[in-house]
From TrEMBL:
Stated name of the protein: non-specific serine/threonine protein kinase
GO molecular function, one term: ATP binding
Residue numbers binding ATP: K48
SUPFAM superfamilies cross-referenced by the UniProt entry: Protein kinase-like (PK-like) (SSF56112)
Keyword Transferase included in the entry's annotation: yes
First-level EC class: transferase
Species of the source: Trichinella pseudospiralis (Parasitic roundworm)
Keyword field contains Nuclease: no
The enzyme's E.C. designation: 2.7.11.1
Amino acid sequence: MDGVDMNNLTKSQMLFDRFKILRKLGSGGFGAVYEAYDCRFAIRVAIKVELKRRNSSTVNKEAEILMNLQGNRHVLQCLESGEQDNYNYLLMEVAAISVSNLLHSLGGRKFPLTLAAQLGCNFVKALQEVHNAGYLHRDVKPSNFVLKKVENTRRVYIIDFGLAKEIENNNVAAKKKNIEFVGTLKYASVNVHKRKPYGRNDDLMSMFYSFLEISSGLPWGDDDEEEVVALKKIEIKPRTLIGNKPEAVYQIYMKLLSLTYKDSIDYAWFINKFKSLITSNIGPADRTRTGTSQCRQQNEIPRDNVISDMSVD
């Protein structure tokens, strides 16, 4: 495999004389992720590949975390990890589509509030599983949640544990100095911008920003500098950020603002708040933002793209 650019494999190209590349799913400093056909076992898989490094391996670390998370409802199955030629690789079951790609397919429209709340409910459940296993995800965003059809439902799974780490003892975390930014600017909490110790509350704030992004959008962009994004997050008034969404959304945000890295999380409280949105009608924010006819169109997204039958239990 010498001389092969792992970030730019093409469709039908063979990898390790075993995997037939189908499409690229993503890339980063670690390497790249592809959907591929495993010719040995005749199945479709997601394969993450990175060049071997002397002192560290993102893929090997992620494989270890995934193995510790196996059996959880909202974590994809880790099929295999290993080394081939000069590369580390990780095999996982493949999902149908990411939440961000599903949103992108709507051509600028956002999800109806009830649908976004279904997703938000499952975002919390996924993070609860990760946290209960002793890990912080540290890069929660719509592209790191994927959907996979399971029987007659579409289930939400959390992916990409390349930045994840074990939850530290509060005393250890409190003594940390020179904390670096971690995550994605658009979805990072204010605490992360302030370089405070990362906690479960920060994963949940990123979850909430993800919920706002898919339901109405965020008032800061992907291309803004960190100082600009942080200032907007700090200065924006809660009611301005929430807009005309139901009171439960405001309550979720205020609860998150009150938490620190030291606090335990009442996941059931957040889940119940999202469930209250699922059972309610479309909120006034949707009508104000889109108008009655457009709001009706939002709810007429082709059924193949709707997660109306997604499990929320």
